[in-house]
């Protein structure tokens, strides 16, 4: 399998402005140098709590905003070296699905137009066949033909998410970034959408970056999982490996915090103390040391290196040095 | 027909829902009624009026009333002929005549024409300017945004009344003809008023730009011009309609104020504002209420009508605003 | 049928609906406006004195322009003293409306409790909340029954300090506490919910706190009057997993400390399994299954409950394909007159097209509303 998307030391800082003249007084390091790669046809799961920068990663990958260093190599092309025109031409191949199915559809447009708009823009199919093509994609995504002239407000959350998926898939993408695509949906609908995503992957050989805070969903859909904390990847490994043998203390506590739907199992929880520190002012050394149980002296001063252990298992923690 | 199978939610469009909410608002319907009445009165009324806008009435020595349009064989410059001014309301002149001997009721119609037309033109002008500049500021952001918004701030700081006074004396000193002054008035009022529209549009676009459907259009690589025309503008429309309606009332009021001060619509043109102007004369104020009260009431009801409709539209577009 | 005809029919229908709604709503609103309701009218008897709350055949309808939405359509449940009852269901199933009905906070005039009883075991004698006038309810809300909301961000007033907001709540609901003692009480409450720097938090503004902290403050606020029943409406949905774990731990801890009952409303089965003694599963305004947590999770009987449990992936349990319940929730305006779940059910049998199934006892505390379990009676 070849690598379709490669991220090298990606950084994205947001300016903090302050004072009377709105000068830049600091940076929020939303993404602070993360690297991973995705093989064609596989799924990379990105997990983390809110504010850890996972959504920013998704959007920076698409170059929806600038970066502050690092590279994104998509299909052999450096995303940040493309001109605006080249970028627009490559856009269809790299798509995104959002969390909120309500705000991600233009309320004043019929569904057929929402899905077909970009197809027409990029001339992917001849104008004559556009309507048929849109219907075919809609069928593939579990929508019915007569939905094509309806408006988004007539649909339920799950159906709207199907429309979003159809919009992305209609452009024949290679990679789809799924930014919490099921978090806003009901459990029974979640399962439908996850199944749909997995079916589409099989049929079309898509690759996904699956961003979520829901570990059980990520475990189900991913081939490889990366755990983010305050803008850094702290651990990355193939799914089976990371769930069987989590190494980083943060990963461990994250996994133990998932409630299991079984009242007889009383879990042995590692409850983390305190909250996530502000990303504008992260702790020195290892960013996790303020909440870590196994915090050592060295953790408070030196940031641990992100290193490969056996079986493709990358960890950034002093415990394993 | 399968009665039970009609799914109202699927059949009823959002437009119909807005309409329904609007129609339920009694005050708004009342406002619509006022406005329709005013439009009929001002635009269709003159066709039924036997008099013209500038027709002056005279009393001949034998008491016969004649006018510049219908001399009936009399000569206005003849001896003993008096201008039939300040007449009390009668069957001939429903609201009497003004101090120059013109029929007030007819002039109210023509005044309404001018006031409403100025309102429309000025609001269109403000919208055009405001939407363009606000749209540019909101969409492109950064330095452009900063520049336009500072311009807006400056516009807010300019005192409109002194500027109108200066412009009026400028027009006077350059001998601009009376009928051209109206165009100048609309132009200046349009330029003075776009700032608030621009601010609103910019705010709306800034919040829309963060919406995920806008990000999606960028991610699918749709051209910026299409993104603005197809995605942004339709979503700002409701707010614009509300602002435009409310703005009409405001413009009519401003125009009335300028005309009252004598720097707006010039004589001999009628406008509701310059008809109220006569109230400056204490004798007219005390003795001839019929000369200044009707135009005043017309201004009041029209502005009220626009505000009722604007409020109704806002509540209809955004039900959350209510209560 | 042409589009035109449909439009015309729709307009006619909407007018009819609006007209009938006005009449119905007026009737209920007039009832609410009545002053000086004699106490006898809302006094009642508990069926089981060990229960803190008994809901009996509750119906809460919303009279909208699109027709009547039967949000809660005959719910019967009881909350025993000192136990946690979880109300589970997907969005729109009526679980939140049930909780708002208990507080009598259903948004009028369109929303009305049309039928049923909510018997609340007040220390001064049991009352029926449905008939209780609003003036009485104000004494109960926050005092005896308190509520924790999903959005800790919007439930706190952003312009006041945390301390003064809790102080105010205490002063309103606890006139017995002296003014000088109020602050001490507030700090005690903050410490109770596990806030370490209580003094510091007392002086902070809501925006300075994180989501988990705010939820703790909300919990502290709802606890400050020693409530007998806490209604927690999706208390952890807006929080991260690690923070959710903290808050759940806190709630469990508090329940034993202050001996209150909790009505937990959530869609997250994992949370339910950890917290609840009894589980009530709702679907389209009706209860489809209820029982102890062990009954419902280990021995689910209703196809909907089974589907819900199966459709959630579980960590460390591999499945190739997730089970998913096909179709979607029926339109709440046009509910069918057979079992509401029939069209999505994979165990559908003949009699499912018949009457709507009633809740029936299938175990000691286990009830289910499904025709699959009819045979014992026939």
What does this entry look like structurally?
Chain C: It comes from Candidatus Epulonipiscium fishelsonii. Chain C: This is Dipeptide/oligopeptide/nickel ABC transporter ATP-binding protein. Chain C: Keywords: ATP-binding, Nucleotide-binding. The complex is a heterotrimer of chains A (321), B (323) and C (378). The longest helix of chain A has 18 residues, at 187-204. Chain A has an eight-stranded mixed β-sheet, with helices on both faces. The radius of gyration of chain A is 21 Å and the shape is globular. The mean pLDDT of chain A is 87. With 321 residues, chain A is an alpha/beta fold. Chain A has helices at residues 54-61, 84-90, 111-121, 130-140, 157-169, 187-204, 215-221, 239-244, 249-256; strands at 3-18, 23-39, 43-47, 71-74, 77-78, 94-97, 175-179, 207-212, 224-229, 232-238, 306-308, 314-316. Chain B has 323 residues and is mainly alpha-helical. Chain B folds into two domains: 55-101, no CATH class; 109-322, MetI-like (MetI-like fold, Orthogonal Bundle), CATH 1.10.3720.10. Chain B is built from twelve helices and three strands; from the N terminus they run H-H-H-E-E-E-H-H-H-H-H-H-H-H-H. Chain B has helices at 8-11, 14-24, 26-48, 104-140, 142-157, 160-173, 178-210, 212-219, 224-261, 272-276, 282-287, 289-317; strands spanning 57-59, 65-67, 82-83. In chain B, a hairpin with a 5-residue loop joins strand 1 (57-59) and strand 2. In chain B, helix 3 (26-48) packs across helix 4 (104-140). The longest helix of chain B has 38 residues, at 224-261. Residues 1-5 of chain B have low confidence and may be disordered. Chain C has 13 helices and twelve strands. The two termini of chain C are 44 Å apart. Chain C has helices spanning 3-33, 39-42, 95-103, 134-140, 152-155, 162-173, 179-192, 198-202, 211-223, 241-258, 269-275, 293-298, 303-311, and strands at 51-64, 67-80, 84-88, 111-120, 127-128, 145-148, 229-233, 261-266, 278-283, 286-292, 360-361, 367-368. Helices cover 37% and strands 20% of the residues of chain C. In chain C, strand 7 (229-233), helix 10 (241-258) and strand 8 (261-266) form a beta-alpha-beta unit. In chain C, helix 7 (179-192) crosses helix 9 and helix 9 packs parallel to helix 10 (241-258). Classes of the chains: A alpha/beta (321), B mainly alpha (323), C alpha/beta (378). Chain A binds chain C through residues 49-50, 156-159, 186-192, 194-195, 198, 213, 215-217, 219-220, 243, 253-265, 267, 269, 271-272, 275-276, and chain C through 90-91, 210-213, 240-246, 248-249, 267-274, 276, 293-294, 297-298, 307-309, 311-316, 319, 321-326, 328-329.
């Amino acid at each position: 399998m070849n690598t379709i998307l490669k991220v090298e030391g990606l950084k994205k800082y947001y300016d903090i402005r302050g004072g009377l003249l709105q000068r830049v007084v600091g940076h929020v390091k939303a993404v602070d140098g993360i690297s991973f790669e995705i093989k064609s046809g596989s799924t990379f799961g990105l997990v983390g709590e809110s504010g850890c920068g996972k959504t920013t990663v998704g959007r920076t990958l698409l170059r929806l905003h600038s970066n502050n260093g690092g590279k994104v190599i998509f299909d052999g092309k450096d995303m940040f070296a493309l001109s605006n025109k080249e970028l627009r031409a490559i856009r269809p191949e790299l798509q995104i699905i959002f969390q909120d199915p309500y705000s991600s559809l233009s309320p004043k447009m019929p569904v057929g137009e929402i899905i077909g708009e970009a197809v027409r823009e990029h001339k992917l199919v001849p104008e004559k066949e556009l309507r048929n093509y849109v219907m075919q994609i809609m069928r593939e995504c579990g929508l019915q033909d007569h939905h094509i002239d309806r408006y988004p407000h007539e649909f339920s959350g799950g159906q709207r998410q199907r429309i979003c998926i159809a919009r992305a898939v209609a452009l024949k993408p290679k990679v789809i970034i799924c930014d919490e695509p099921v978090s806003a949906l009901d459990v029974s609908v979640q399962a439908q959408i996850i199944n749909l995503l997995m079916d589409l992957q099989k049929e079309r050989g898509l690759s996904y970056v699956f961003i979520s805070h829901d570990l059980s969903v990520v475990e189900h859909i991913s081939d490889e999982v990366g755990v983010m904390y305050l803008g850094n990847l702290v651990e990355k490994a193939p799914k089976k490996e990371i769930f069987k043998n989590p190494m980083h203390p943060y990963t461990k506590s994250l996994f133990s915090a998932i409630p299991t739907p079984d009242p007889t199992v009383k879990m042995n929880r590692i409850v983390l103390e305190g909250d996530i520190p502000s990303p504008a002012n992260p702790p020195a050394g290892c960013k996790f040391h303020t909440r870590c149980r196994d915090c050592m002296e060295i953790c408070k001063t030196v940031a641990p290196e992100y290193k490969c252990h056996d079986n493709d298992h990358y960890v950034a923690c002093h415990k394993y040095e | 027909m399968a009665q039970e199978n009609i799914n109202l939610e699927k059949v009823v469009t959002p437009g119909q829902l807005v309409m329904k909410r609007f129609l339920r608002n009694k005050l708004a319907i009342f406002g619509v009624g006022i406005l329709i009445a005013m439009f009929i009165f001002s635009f269709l009324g003159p066709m039924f009026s036997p008099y013209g806008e500038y027709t002056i009435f005279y009393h001949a020595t034998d008491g016969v009333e004649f006018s510049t349009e219908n001399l009936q064989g009399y000569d206005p410059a003849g001896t003993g002929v008096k201008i039939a001014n300040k007449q009390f309301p009668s069957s001939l002149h429903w609201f009497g005549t003004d101090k120059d001997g013109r029929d007030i009721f007819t002039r109210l119609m023509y005044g309404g024409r001018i006031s409403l037309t100025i309102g429309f033109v000025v609001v269109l002008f403000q919208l055009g300017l405001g939407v363009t500049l606000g749209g540019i500021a909101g969409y492109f952001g950064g330095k452009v945004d900063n520049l336009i918004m500072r311009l807006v701030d400056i516009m807010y700081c300019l005192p409109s009344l002194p500027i109108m006074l200066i412009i009026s004396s400028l027009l006077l000193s350059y001998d601009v003809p009376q009928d051209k002054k109206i165009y100048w008035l609309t132009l200046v009022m349009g330029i003075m008023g776009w700032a608030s529209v621009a601010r609103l549009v910019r705010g709306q676009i800034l919040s829309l730009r963060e919406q995920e459907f806008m990000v999606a259009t960028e991610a699918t690589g749709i051209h910026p011009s299409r993104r603005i025309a197809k995605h942004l503008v339709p979503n700002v429309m409701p707010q614009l309609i509300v602002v435009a309606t409310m703005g009409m009332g405001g413009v009519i009021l401003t125009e009335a104020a300028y005309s009252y001060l004598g720097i707006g619509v010039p004589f001999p043109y009628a406008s509701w504002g310059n008809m109220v102007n006569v109230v400056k004369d204490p004798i007219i104020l005390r003795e001839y209420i019929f000369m200044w009260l009707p135009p005043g009431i017309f201004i009041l009801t029209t502005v009220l009508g626009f505000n009722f409709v604007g409020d109704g539209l806002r509540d209809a577009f955004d039900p959350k605003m209510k209560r | 049928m042409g589009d035109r005809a449909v439009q015309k029919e729709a307009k006619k229908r909407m007018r009819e609906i609006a007209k009938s709604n006005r009449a119905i709503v007026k009737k209920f609103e007039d009832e609410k406006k009545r002053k000086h309701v004699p106490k006898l009218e809302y006094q009642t008897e508990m069926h089981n004195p060990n229960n803190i709350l008994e809901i009996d055949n509750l119906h809460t309808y919303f009279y909208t322009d699109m027709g009547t939405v039967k949000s809660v359509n005959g719910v019967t449940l009881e909350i025993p003293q000192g136990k946690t009852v979880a109300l589970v269901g997907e969005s729109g199933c009526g679980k939140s409306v049930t909780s708002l009905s208990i507080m009598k906070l259903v948004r009028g005039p369109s929303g009305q409790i049309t039928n049923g009883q909510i018997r609340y075991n007040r220390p001064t004698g049991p009352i029926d909340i449905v008939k209780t006038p609003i003036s009485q309810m104000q004494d109960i809300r926050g005092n005896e029954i308190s509520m924790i909301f999903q959005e800790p961000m919007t439930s706190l007033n952003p312009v006041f300090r945390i301390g003064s907001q809790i102080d105010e709540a205490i002063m309103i609901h606890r006139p017995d506490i002296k003014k000088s003692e109020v602050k001490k009480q507030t700090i005690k409450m903050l410490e109770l919910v596990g806030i370490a720097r209580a003094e510091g938090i007392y002086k902070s503004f809501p925006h300075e706190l994180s989501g988990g902290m705010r939820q703790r403050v909300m919990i502290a606020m709802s606890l400050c009057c020693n409530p007998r029943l806490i209604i927690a409406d999706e208390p952890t949905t807006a929080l991260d997993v690690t923070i959710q774990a903290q808050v759940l731990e806190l709630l469990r801890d508090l329940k034993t400390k202050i001996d209150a009952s909790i009505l937990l409303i959530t869609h997250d089965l994992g949370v339910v399994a950890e917290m609840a003694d009894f589980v009530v599963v709702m679907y389209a305004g009706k209860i489809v299954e209820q029982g102890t947590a062990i009954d419902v999770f280990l021995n689910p009987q209703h196809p909907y409950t089974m589907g819900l449990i199966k459709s959630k992936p579980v960590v460390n349990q591999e499945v190739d394909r997730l089970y998913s319940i096909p179709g979607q929730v029926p339109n709440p305006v046009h509910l069918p007159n057979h079992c509401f779940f029939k069209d999505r059910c994979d165990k559908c049998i003949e009699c499912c097209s018949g009457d709507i199934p009633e809740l029936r006892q299938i175990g000691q505390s286990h009830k289910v509303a499904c025709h699959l379990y009819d045979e014992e009676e026939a």
